[in-house]
Amino acid sequence: MELQEFYKGPRGIAVKILNRVERTDSYLDKLLDIELKSDELNELDKRFLTELTHGVVRWKTRLDFIIEYFCKNKFAMQDPNIRNAMRVALYQILFLTKIPHAADVNEAVEFVKKIRGQKAANLVNAVLRNIIRNLNKLPTPDSESDPIQYLSIMYAHPTWIVKRWVERYGFYETEQLLSANNERPTVVVRANSLKTNVDELAKLFDERGIKYVKSKYLDDFLKVGHLTGIYNLDLFNQGYFSVQDESAGLVVKLLDPKPGETVIDLCSAPGGKTTYIGELMKNEGKIIAVDKYEHRLNLVKQSCERVGLTNVEFIAEDATAVNFNGSADKVLVDAPCSGFGVIQKKPDIKWQRELSDIKNLVKTQLELLETASKLVKNGGVIVYSTCTIEPEENIEVVKSFLDKHPEFEIEDARKYLPSDVVTNGGYMETFPHKHDMDGGFAVRLIKVK
């Protein structure tokens, strides 16, 4: 029998996905998306599969630390199928308390027995049952002797990231940030002003029994908690709303696009900011949406069609090579970055990135700003934004750019955004543990000469 036959049901498929994540550089969400399109799983199973894969990746080093302790240092030597079956089971035991522990263990044991035999199954059974017996006295690293290791294991983040953040923010605030990164992400939606308004959307949600709270920061945004299946809602497909984090919405508010303007979105895919720009422009003027890859640009096209935007021109080209001869009123540079502000939504990012990635990204970020400087007219605006909290990719990139371009200056973001998301330097910074949204950065630059 082929190995593929054993990966059945949410737990088995979770192990298959986690194996791939562990041995390749594949992104978790892309692998998960493939499985979620299958007809083999019902909606409940799909939600369970998503919870298992995200949960295990989110808490990986903490799970491993516990299993290793009870496995007598033999865990790392096990086959990936055994390791990931144990991680899936332990994640359920620690975090999904509605499922009986015995069921968690039995599922893992039966899976390992089929795929690796009775001896391996006996090991899994013994370790997991021993953990359950000791749930009130699980091992923890010593926070006094090695605070970095303590935070790294207990909050499941790579040591190098924890060390950077402790040096920058101190132990206590880093602990808050790590904790916030491990929370299940909140779904936030933006009412489409071309078709409805936030009050009408709220009423439509009420009619469907969807619970929400209004955003503290943006009038047209609603937070709908951990709502699943949101992309299957009729209201989404009819374009009444888009899914967008508040931090991304604040970036567009900082850009402040107006009807009749020409706006270039240099890194537009998947299209959340593009569509918000179009809605604020009331479908008047022109948006030029640029992305390097046609298949990613198609995502932007689909989003624009869904919300009813007709003023968008699409260009599949490397953003650093685009040239419109300084004709744009505004340019958005939503730059590729390390993504350390969205670890909540994409937990695999923290395991895939290395310090060298940050340094390598800076070159591209500066190139994009250089391009933008040629595209915007005198008196025009560039907004540079990222979804990371790393200064090297944020304010330090901006300072490097301004050193070479004295014709630009920072305009205080307080003119456009709530003051508690704006720093003393006049640029936007958001953090999960402070603002209950994605971490992000944005700065508004005016071409004054």
Task: Jot down its keywords.
449 residues, alpha/beta, N-utilizing Substance Protein B Homolog, Chain A, Alpha-Beta Plaits, 8-stranded mixed beta sheet, 4-stranded antiparallel beta sheet, 12 strands, 13% strand, globular, 16S rRNA (cytosine(967)-C(5))-methyltransferase, transferase, RsmB-like_ferredoxin
Describe the fold and architecture.
- The chain is an alpha/beta fold and 449 residues long.
- The protein has 4 domains: 3-137, NusB-like (N-utilizing Substance Protein B Homolog, Chain A, Orthogonal Bundle), CATH 1.10.940.10; 147-181, no CATH class; 188-243, Sun protein, domain 3 (Alpha-Beta Plaits, 2-Layer Sandwich), CATH 3.30.70.1170; 246-447, Rossmann fold (3-Layer(aba) Sandwich), CATH 3.40.50.
- It contains 19 helices and 12 strands.
- The protein has helices at 9-23, 28-36, 43-58, 60-70, 80-95, 101-116, 118-133, 147-154, 159-169, 171-181, 198-207, 234-237, 246-255, 272-280, 294-307, 349-352, 355-375, 395-404, 432-435, and strands at 188-191, 213-214, 221-223, 241-243, 262-265, 286-291, 312-316, 328-334, 376-386, 408-411, 428-430, 440-447.
- Helix 6 packs antiparallel against helix 7, helix 13 (246-255) crosses helix 14 and helix 17 packs across helix 18.
- The longest helix has 21 residues, at 355-375.
- It is globular, with a radius of gyration of 24 Å.
- The mean pLDDT is 94.
- This is 16S rRNA (cytosine(967)-C(5))-methyltransferase.
- Its EC number is 2.1.1.176.
- One of its GO terms (cellular component) is cytoplasm.
- GO terms for molecular function: RNA binding; rRNA methyltransferase activity.
